[in-house]
Design brief:
By secondary structure, the protein is mainly α. Among the domains are: 1-138, no CATH class; 142-241, Serine Threonine Protein Phosphatase 5, Tetratricopeptide repeat (Alpha Horseshoe); 415-539, Alpha Horseshoe (Serine Threonine Protein Phosphatase 5, Tetratricopeptide repeat), CATH 1.25.40. The protein contains 28 helices and four strands. It has helices spanning 40-51, 58-70, 79-89, 93-105, 112-124, 128-137, 143-155, 159-171, 178-191, 194-206, 213-225, 229-238, 244-256, 260-272, 279-292, 295-308, 314-326, 330-339, 345-357, 361-373, 380-393, 396-410, 416-428, 432-440, 448-461, 464-475, 482-494, 498-510, and strands spanning 24-26, 29-31, 519-524, 527-532. It has a two-stranded antiparallel ribbon. Strands 3-4 form a two-stranded antiparallel sheet. The structure holds one DNA strand. InterPro entries: E_motif, PPR_At4g14850-like_plant, PPR_rpt, TPR-like_helical_dom_sf.
Length: 539
DNA sequence: ATAGGGTTAG
């Protein structure tokens, strides 16, 4: 692993700094001392301007700094925050360390702005240990230092550490503001720890923190991601001001909670308020459509995108491919896929799963090869698609090989989904003994879906003896599946053991296992309605 | 003149 940044070639520009020398030596020899931009404040304002540019003007900023040094001008406390911000955005760790040395040499390391920017710089560049060390030795850390370090931890996925800092602030009774609160809450969202989230919320109320729309959004998101969608929606309704992110958080919150109809209903409310959806909104809306099989609504999103000039690229493109693939219009999924400029592991995985689900195993496997050829590393989900394809096509040998390759070649640990695919594959192929053996030797605890697959295989091949054995194991599971009873009952019936068949049905009723009420959705004129068996149509 | 925050797919 090489840790050298791609900007290393600029390093020679940053020669050892001597503020008062008239000439600067670089690898290219002596550079004339000449002021191009006047005094230090002019340089600073140009640097500040650069931090606001859309593109990454790292070359420009470094050469500007270089020019400044060569002009014999001393950088001051206003120079470095801008410079560090520019370098942080590019993760130019090596250059930043040099700048850090310059800062120390100039004795500017005790400036609060510079210290905080250094912490931020190291945090952004992924060297969180340096960031935290700086924070620790910083005598005058303020609320900004705390927040910056919290963000640094979150950036590298150390959410517990991030929240630990907030708790420390609570214990020290330090002032917290809306920005600090956002950092803590978003770390909590990522952890999905509702208990912790509630604790933070209580503290926010006790301290009477003045919440702005960012903080409200973070609260809504925290409750949604931690599984309390009711509370999230209550806060959403009572918050004083909403923006597009608020709506997006609420829609994605409902999607996350599996409440797809309510997600679309919030989307409709958003439109009624005249708020135009952005990319993020459409991704969540497409996800809801995918899960509902709401093809017409999905098509509408696609048309809307075309009308508004939203390119089907990146996350949005992937969501569109997924929607078409799962809603049964595989040809459109392929069209969108082919129209995309860049395809990543998501794009490929969506289409591979799509092909596999449509019984097009060969296409799925071809696409998998194409993906590998393109140098895209597969992940766990890719293999769910690959194994599903093998299972449906009866490609047992290939499937077992791919299952083996997961860990051997790609270092991916198979989870219960993958084991389920293999059981399904062996079972469908009639290799019941092998399937049972495979389940016995699984390094993870089989769940009810595994037993279900095995039982389905027994039913398919009329193996009562094994079916009884499997059923026994299925009944040991904490959640009894109605499908298992029905499979077993049908297996008996198929084998002319009608009394046993009736017994199983009776036992199912005795154990109060009911077929889960059919819950589905339909679209009428592109409006998605949900209905449950026995219930009235409800929006 | 300079520093900290939110939403997105399989």
């Amino acid at each position: 692993m090489h840790s050298s940044s791609p900007q290393t070639h600029h390093l020679h520009l940053l020669t050892p700094f001597e503020p008062n020398s008239k000439q600067k030596k670089t690898q290219f020899g002596y550079i004339r001392t000449k002021t191009h931009h006047g005094d230090i404040s002019t340089y600073n304002s140009i640097l500040l301007q650069l931090t606001k540019e859309k593109y990454d003007p790292i070359l420009k900023s470094i050469s500007l700094y270089q020019e400044l040094l060569c002009s014999g001008i001393s950088p001051n406390t206003f120079t470095f925050p801008c410079l560090l911000k520019l370098l942080a955005n590019k993760c130019a760790l090596a250059e930043g360390k040099l700048i850090h040395a310059h800062i120390i040499k100039l004795g500017l390391e005790y400036d609060a702005y510079i210290r905080n920017n250094l912490i931020r710089f190291y945090g952004q560049c992924g060297d969180i240990s340096i960031a935290s060390k700086l924070f620790d030795i910083f005598p005058d850390r303020d609320i900004v230092s705390w927040t910056i370090l919290m963000s640094g931890y979150s950036k590298v996925g150390m959410f517990r550490e991030s929240i630990k800092l907030f708790i420390q602030m609570m214990e020290l009774n330090l002032e917290v503001d809306a920005v600090t609160v956002v950092s803590a809450l978003s770390a909590c969202s990522r952890l999905g720890d509702l208990k912790l989230g509630k604790k933070l919320h209580r503290y926010i109320k006790i301290r009477n923190v003045n919440l702005d729309v960012y903080a409200w959004n973070a609260l809504v998101d925290m409750y949604a991601k931690c599984g309390d969608i009711t509370c999230a929606y209550d806060l959403f309704k009572q918050m004083p001001e909403r923006n597009i992110v608020t709506w997006n958080s609420m829609i994605s919150g409902f999607v996350h909670a599996g409440e797809f109809i309510r997600a679309l209903s919030v989307f409709r409310k958003m439109q009624n308020k005249g708020i135009d959806p952005d990319h993020t909104t459409l991704v969540s809306v497409l996800s809801a459509c995918t899960n509902l099989g709401a093809l017409e609504m999905g098509r509408w999103v696609h048309l809307y995108m075309l009308r508004m000039g939203f390119k089907p690229e990146g996350v949005l493109g992937n969501a569109l491919v997924d929607m078409y693939a799962k809603c049964g219009v595989i040809d459109h999924a392929v069209q969108v896929f082919e129209g995309m400029m860049k395809r990543d592991v998501f794009t490929f995985s969506c289409l591979i799963i799509g092909f596999a689900m449509h019984g097009k195993a060969e296409k799925a496997m071809d696409l998998f090869s194409e993906m590998l050829t393109a140098g895209i590393e597969p992940n766990e989900v890719t293999f769910v698609g690959v194994l599903t394809a093998c299972s449906h096509a009866g490609l047992v040998k290939e499937g077992l090989l791919q299952f083996d390759n997961m860990l051997k070649i790609y270092g991916l640990n198979p989870d219960v989904r993958h084991y389920g695919c293999v059981v399904d594959m062996l079972g469908r192929a009639g290799l019941l003994g092998k399937a049972e053996e495979f389940v016995k030797e699984m390094p993870i605890e089989p769940d009810s879906s595994i037993w279900g697959s095995l039982l389905a295989a027994c039913k398919m091949h009329g193996n009562v003896e094994m079916g009884e054995r499997v059923m026994q194991r299925a009944l040991e599971m904490p959640s009894k599946e109605d499908g298992d009873y029905i499979l077993m009952s049908n297996l008996y019936a198929f084998s002319n053991r009608h009394n046993d068949s009736i017994q199983v049905r009776k036992e199912m009723r005795r154990n109060k296992v009911r077929k889960i009420p059919g819950c589905s959705s339909i679209e009428i004129d592109g409006i998605v309605y949900e209905f449950r068996a026995g219930n009235k149509l409800s929006l």
